[in-house]
Design a protein that fits this description.
This protein is α/β, with parallel strands linked by helices. It has 15 helices and 21 strands. It has two domains: about 270 residues, 3-Layer(aba) Sandwich (Aldehyde Dehydrogenase, Chain A, domain 1); about 180 residues, Aldehyde Dehydrogenase, Chain A, domain 2. Bound molecules: NADPH dihydro-nicotinamide-adenine-dinucleotide phosphate (NDP).
Length: about 500
């Protein structure tokens, strides 16, 4: 029997009588990781109303004091890093160093946001009139719905929760169903850190059941979503009818360009990590290699040599390079794309199969896969979200940029070259929210904005100081100390 967990509403863990439950399982062993309440729309309403009740007092808590609670949360995350990292690995399948990295990213961000409590900068600007001050304040929006995916089950929720909390919002957190254990554990961290009741509320269960409530309820003032483009589009459309502020972070089809003057070994290292880290299930994962014709054969020879030594297996075991994909649905979708690639005439250079036998039979293991493809094939344009990479031969830099940009997404991009002019041209011309020079497409740091253009997002960014903008309204204040009516634009 799995351990049972409730919803966290108003500072209490509760299991509504007769509630439906579901379990999450390790994608490598099938082990159950907990039993969770499948929240209903009524539970979502209760969580939203509770968050709304807690809002007034939380917004009036001085921001540096809110920061102290976040700092305590960062300390608890640190103390529990190994344990939480292993939950990440067990529940979604990324290898243990990456599981711990997921938690470390949360620690970094929560710590960073805690200090923002002493800034929350506004602007002070001169008035066109005498004896008058003009400045801006940042104020919380109210109740925020944070809807998150399974691929970074600790880091991504914290990007939203910590930024929302430091700015004085209260939160209803709806994690991906299949990483509910990670969500429970991270909520416990905030509870242990002393967050007042109702400020952070957790509802587990299906997005399709509680989604509408979270995106249209009158008391929800902002929705912060990370996940697939179709889901995001649906949320955006629903929430727009209710005039909600919505921030979306969605898919990617991220290219790594390797030019003829690149340090090839460095580019090979970067590609292995970028394409197959977390089994290719990062939104910034490299899914296209745009390889210059002059180094095409040499680069692929070196890459394939390294791939032959790549170990797929138990993600908890030291020395494993890649674990399973995160679920049966993911496995099915990825294997379908591999078939699509073959049918389209892409040449399979490596992998392409589900792994079977021994441990593999208990989980969802797929070989790291490399296709030689032509730009325009579906596998070069659609997000696969798995360990499937397509290599496309390019003749020059202009062609690389053209191919890189000819997809619907624009999240991350990378170029390996020693030519400084080309590096800067790439920074200017690649249509993506993030460009790496001589580094893989993955590797976000929390003090910098994160997000994409085109169908990856809707204009906002997470992390960095911009995260503050996502969760605040700007109040413009005029203070007139002239003791008479002054008329802007009319008096000279
Ligand atoms: P989904 O879009 O399926 O789910 C994301 C979240 O939305 C989950 O919590 C899900 O709940 C919830 N949800 C589903 N339907 C609704 C609905 N109708 N209303 C409200 N919420 C809903 O994505 P995945 O979890 O499968 O994540 C993978 C996708 O996320 C990939 O396509 C990837 O590119 C993208 N992604 C983007 C990132 C970025 O920063 N750009 C980062 C990480 C992932 P439930 O689990 O219950 O279905």
């Amino acid at each position: 029997m799995s351990e049972e967990f409730g919803l966290f509403i108003g500072g209490k863990w509760e299991s509504p009588a007769g509630a439906k439950r579901f379990v999450t399982r390790s994608p490598s062993t099938g082990e159950e990781l907990g039993s969770f309440v499948a929240a209903t729309a009524a539970d979502a309403t209760r969580a939203i109303e509770t968050a709304h009740k807690a809002f007034e007092s939380w917004r009036r808590t001085p921001a540096p004091k809110r920061g102290q609670i976040l700092l305590r949360a960062a300390e608890v995350f640190k103390a529990r890093k190994d344990e939480l990292g292993s939950f990440v690995t067990k529940e979604m399948g990324k290898i243990l160093p990456e599981g711990k990295g997921d938690v470390q990213e949360a620690i970094d961000f929560v710590e960073y946001m805690s200090a923002e409590g002493r800034r929350l900068l506004g602007e002070t600007v001169p008035s066109e009139l005498r004896n008058k001050y003009c400045f801006t304040l940042r104020q919380p929006k109210g109740v925020v719905a944070a809807i998150t995916p399974w691929n970074f089950p600790v880091a991504i929720p914290n990007w939203k929760i910590a930024a929302a909390l430091i700015t004085g919002n209260t939160v209803v957190f709806k994690p991906a169903t299949n990483t509910s254990r990670c969500a429970v554990e991270l909520t416990r961290v905030y509870e242990e850190a002393g967050l007042p009741p109702g400020v952070l509320n957790l509802i587990t269960g299906s997005g399709s059941v509680v989604g509408k409530e979270l995106t249209t309820h009158p008391l929800v003032r902002a929705v912060s979503f990370t996940g697939g483009t179709d889901t995001g589009r649906g949320i955006y459309t629903e929430a727009a009818k209710a005039l909600k502020y919505v921030h979306l972070e969605m898919g990617g089809k991220n290219p790594q360009i390797v030019m003829e003057d690149a340090n090839l070994d460095l580019a090979v290292d970067g590609l292995l990590f970028g394409a197959y880290g977390s089994s290719g299930q990062r939104c910034t994962a490299t899914s296209r290699l745009l390889l210059h014709k002059n180094v095409y054969d040499e680069f692929l020879a070196r890459f394939l040599k390294r791939l032959a030594k790549f170990r797929v297996g138990d993600p908890l075991k030291e020395g494993t390079d890649m674990g399973p994909v995160s679920s049966a649905d993911q496995e099915k979708k990825i294997l379908e794309y591999i078939e699509i690639g073959k049918k389209e005439g892409a040449k399979l250079l490596y992998g392409g199969k589900k792994l079977t036998g021994g441990l593999y039979d208990k989980g969802f293991f797929i070989e790291p896969t490399l296709f030689e493809a032509r730009h325009g094939m579906r596998i070069t344009k659609e997000e696969i979200f798995g360990p499937v990479l397509s290599v496309i031969k390019i003749s020059d830099f202009d062609e690389a940029v053209k191919v890189a940009n000819d997809v619907e997404y624009g999240l991350s991009s990378s170029i390996y070259t020693r030519d400084v002019n080309r590096s800067f041209q790439a920074m200017e011309r690649l249509e993506a929210g993030i460009t790496y020079i001589n580094a893989p497409t993955i590797g976000a740091e929390v003090q910098l904005p994160f997000g994409g253009i085109k169908n990856t997002g809707n204009g906002g960014r997470e992390a960095g100081t911009v995260a503050i903008e996502e969760f605040t309204e700007i109040k413009t204040v005029f203070v007139d100390f002239s003791d008479r009516l002054q008329k802007a634009q009319i008096e000279s």
